[in-house]
Specification:
The protein is of the alpha/beta class. Helices cover 41% and strands 19% of the residues. The protein is built from 13 helices and 18 strands. The strands form 5 sheets. Strands 8-7-6-9-12-17-18 form a 7-stranded mixed sheet, with helices on both faces. Strands 13-10-11-16 form a 4-stranded mixed sheet, covered by helices on one side.
Length: 367
């Protein structure tokens, strides 16, 4: 999408073909910094420290990480090590494992001399596929926004989203944001309520930043505001992203998503989840019981960073010394609370049959 009119992606092969460029998302919204990844350790660090984050981008970054590793050492041992190191960076988003398995399949049966080139080629394809998938999600989700707009006679359509499932979380377009960008680019009056998304504030710092730079009207709201807005008819549709969807349609996403789904159900506000097919994990069914939920460090809850009035970036402690902290990064929204799944192959019911029918090649014999 555009940053001040300039089309930009979140990850790219550097012009000299020797490194991978990323936007350091830990610096946003106050500083736009790009980084060059040159080896496996750089790629693993970028994912773990959340310089890159969001399920599809984690997958693409891991794919390029495999290339960086194989470029240095194309042996079987190095391949296995790269797979293990990258897989351990973040546990919840299944796109990571999907991308690593794709890379393994692309290089495993090749000679050492061929492996790096094959890895680079597959990583590039994974990135391009992500863009195409998100565009298809955008076209399918756009219809939902258009239906609401038709009923509202030109009044603005209010979309609530949680965390950042925008272009910063993917290679381009985003998942939840793709329909929004398409509606906006068509001149429709679409407005986004962006949950701030404590503790890391991806909504306040990333979603608001990217919507603002593309010119999409938006309002940042504290996480607890959504229910109130829904009670007052101020939210027409909720669209969120996801880190893993199970075979039965349960949705794992950033912590707090479940509460938004409960509020949406109570207020009869449609609750949609946008996802690319690599986010579906047909090996698990009951999301609450089976999906590993990442627990992150206490500092993310205890501390807050921001820009002071005189332009310095400062980090301050916001809880008493010694208070224990819990930091679960994701939660699971059961399929019964999901109005529909916006995928590249259409808007599906959140259930086993619909998912298996739409993606038979992925569902395979795991049903
Ligand atoms: O911890 P993060 O920032 O990687 O979490 C991101 C999310 O929860 C997104 O909603 C999800 O990855 C979907 S991104 C299209």
């Amino acid at each position: 999408m555009k940053i001040d009119g300039k089309p930009t992606r979140t990850i790219w092969l550097e012009a000299d073909g020797q490194g991978v460029g990323i936007i350091d998302q830990t610096q946003l919204p106050h500083r736009f910094v790009t980084l060059r990844l040159t080896d496996l350790a750089d790629a693993a660090h970028a994912i773990k420290s959340m310089q890159v984050r969001g399920a599809p981008l984690i997958g693409a970054a891991a794919a390029y990480g495999m290339w960086l590793a194989l470029r240095a050492d194309a042996s079987d041992e190095a391949l296995e090590r790269a797979y293990t190191v990258l897989l351990a960076t973040r546990p919840t988003a299944i796109n990571l494992k999907w991308a690593l398995d794709e890379m393994l399949a692309a290089v495993r049966n090749r000679s050492r001399a061929e492996r790096a080139a094959a890895a680079l080629s597959r990583a590039g394809e994974i990135a391009e596929e992500d863009v195409a998938i998100n565009q298809a999600i955008g076209r399918n989700g756009l219809k939902l926004i258009e239906e609401i707009a038709a009923k509202k006679n030109g009044e603005r359509v209010n979309v609530l989203t949680h965390c950042n499932a925008g272009w910063l979380a993917t290679v381009d377009w985003g998942t939840a944001t793709a329909p929004i960008y398409m509606a906006h680019d068509k001149g429709m009056p679409v407005h986004v309520y962006a949950d701030e998304t404590r503790p890391r504030n991806q909504g306040a710092s990333l979603t608001a930043w990217e919507l603002g730079h593309h010119g999409v009207p938006h309002t940042v709201i504290p996480d607890n505001t959504g229910g109130h807005l829904m009670q007052h008819g101020l939210v027409d549709i909720v669209i969120v992203g996801t880190d893993r969807v199970t075979a039965q349609g349960d949705v794992c996403n950033k912590i707090g998503t479940y509460l938004k789904a409960l509020a949406a159900a109570d207020n009869k506000v449609p609750f949609y989840v946008a996802l690319p097919s690599p986010t579906i994990d047909f090996t698990v069914s009951d999301g609450v019981a089976e999906i590993p939920i990442e627990q992150r460090g206490a500092d993310e809850v205890a501390m807050m960073s921001g820009r002071t009035k005189d332009g310095r970036i400062e980090t301050v402690q916001i809880i008493p010394d010694g208070s224990p902290v819990a930091n679960y990064a994701f939660d699971v929204t059961p399929a019964r609370l999901v109005t529909g799944l916006i995928t590249e192959r259409g808007v599906l019911a959140a259930n086993r049959e619909a998912l298996a029918k739409a993606f038979p090649e992925r569902a395979g014999n795991k049903l």
